[in-house]
Amino acid sequence: MCCRPEKTMSNTPITLKLLAEKLKMSVSTVSKALNNYPTINEHTKKHVQDMARELHYMPNKSAINLKEKKSRVIGVILPNLLDHFFTRSIYGIEQFATQNGYHIIIRQTNDELEEEIQSADMLLKSRVDGLIVAISKNTQDFSHFNQFESLGIPIVYYTRNPSFNLNCHKVLGNTFKGCYEATDLLIKRGHRKIAYLGGPKMISFTHDRFNGYINALKDNNIPFDANLVAYTDFDKENTIAAIQKLFADGNQAPTALVAFKELILFDAIKYLRSIDHPQVKQIECIGFGNNSFISYLDLPPIASLEENPESVGENAISLLLKLIDKEISIKNYQKVMVDCKLVVH
Amino acid sequence: MCCRPEKTMSNTPITLKLLAEKLKMSVSTVSKALNNYPTINEHTKKHVQDMARELHYMPNKSAINLKEKKSRVIGVILPNLLDHFFTRSIYGIEQFATQNGYHIIIRQTNDELEEEIQSADMLLKSRVDGLIVAISKNTQDFSHFNQFESLGIPIVYYTRNPSFNLNCHKVLGNTFKGCYEATDLLIKRGHRKIAYLGGPKMISFTHDRFNGYINALKDNNIPFDANLVAYTDFDKENTIAAIQKLFADGNQAPTALVAFKELILFDAIKYLRSIDHPQVKQIECIGFGNNSFISYLDLPPIASLEENPESVGENAISLLLKLIDKEISIKNYQKVMVDCKLVVH
DNA sequence: AAACGCATTTCAAACGTTTGAAATTCTTAC
DNA sequence: GTAAGAATTTCAAACGTTTGAAATGCGTTT
Fold first, then answer.
1. What pLDDT score does A332 carry?
2. What are phi and psi of A261, to 5 degrees?
3. Strand C: positions under 7 A of a protein C-beta atom
4. Residues 6 or more apart from B183 whose CB is under 8 A from it?
5. Contact A75/A118 with Cβ under 8 angstroms?
6. CB-contacted nucleotides of strand D (7 Å)
7. How far apart are CA B92 and CA B74, in angstroms?
8. CA B203/CA B209 separation, integer angstroms
9. Of A5-9, A307-311, B110-114, B260-264, which range is least confident?
């Protein structure tokens, strides 16, 4: 229909051989010119590169991968794609991967160890060049990842880190700081009875966040009250149980909540409303998440902790590619921290 | 740490050649045995296949792709990944693709034609074997996809279809039926003034859904009132403008809403609350989406139209792979409809 | 015993790159 | 004018498959 000036696009994609013929040069010269070999004459290089551009030459990835013995595929194992954190992190990973000539295979574990093991096996068989993993909520045994190690396939763990110290590469949110700031904000707003709703105890961020909370209390000279701390996971029932614990004694009821996850707060508030808790409308809360639909809620959190999932994902794959390219030794364990941002609504 | 009985996994992955050596056969026999060639002796086949399994032989994809002149990469162009519909559809696509040895490259257009064009160019250069596209909200000119056609690279359009009849392969939600059922439900609940909030006019589902609405009215002998119809897109401002139109005259205010998208309803309700519309609490609405956080809303829709995005995605890639494999001729344009489900909350 | 037909196996080229070694061309010095 | 040396280009093998053509083995037929 519209203008199409370049009719060079033929049916069979152009190869090095064809390019070489056009240029009346050998295939190796062309290859080396395109790859900027120092032994190739500068004038020749320019000539070749110009022609390549003109004919829309695109190297065949399969051939290169075959030669380089790489698959250019990265495996990503994560609990699910319904959680916005993971969706957004995948976006960061996918963008960066594509830009660097890699593809990703995504495996969801539904937070089940068994599925995590299966995914690891599947990805091993797919000959991935590297792995990015957000462990399931109760992964303690990491032996299903040993096979990668013995093949020299690097793994970067992201977001979720086991609560014991695992010698590995990791990219984590600086969740201590985030939780400190959130607690501090609530204190500044006059709260004294601030509850902490923690997540799965197997994951280290649960403790980091708790420490942020504790430290903010301490720095503001507010005594710590163990009754104001409860733990849950991603299950609604467990959250309700935790809330019941926190609000067991009406007199002592907290006036503010800090939660390891924003979604948990929604369940919490919903429950408090359902039992017609007298102060529910006064309770102020902050959680990790920054979900976009907060604006539709009747009793929204007063602030959110934006975890920058895209950035976490990008840092994870960026590190992984450096490990794959051996820019960083696989034994030189890295720990990258990505800051959160407290967003007041 | 734990038991690891199979120590066969060596550092260099096993190839056909190695397998052939072990078996004292030629590489071609082994290849043909694994690919179940009829000229190979059944006994030999079994022997080869047993050994392959034992040694964990996995064919090298790059080599096969090189030989077959395929990239085994599918490009997916869609407006964004923040919308749950697309996230869920990507899940369906990714699962099916991986199972069939394909990878996907995801490109987000942010509903901008310009970015759609760029994505198409990028994917062409990546030598994708096929394309799955959800067009941006105002794509009318499809010439940026012509290049694929002329190279014989199949395209499947999904979810979003241009409002004029484009000769192409498409996988769409049966959104007429969904909207009919939603409207019908509202009528059954006693509503007579039911508004229809339509989406971008360039996309065919806007009209299909409108027809569902109209037909339900007709079948229930309710006169059509043009004042009860307004159009918006994904922008909040436009939605507010549409709502202002619908609720312009207090007397005539609708008591129920059907929207082309659930998220739009949230904006609508929020606005009506903000202007303290007297009947806001009585208004019942239904939209396409079935968002999980509905349960947190104060005034939730009474029902949702579950569009089964995973199924839409799966149908799209399933069709695409058939086109790639030439099981279906590329000129034999297919139209697949995926049913919605009305979920009453 | 030679010739044939059949079942089965092997050969060898090809897919599109990369890259060390070998070959060629160009400079420069004597 | 030629030889050494540097600069540049080309050769050829390799990566791991697939596949049509050729070769092999073997039982039958004449």
1. 96
2. -155, 135
3. 7-12, 14-20
4. B194, B196, B212, B213, B216, B217, B258
5. no
6. 7-12, 14-20
7. 13
8. 11
9. A5-9
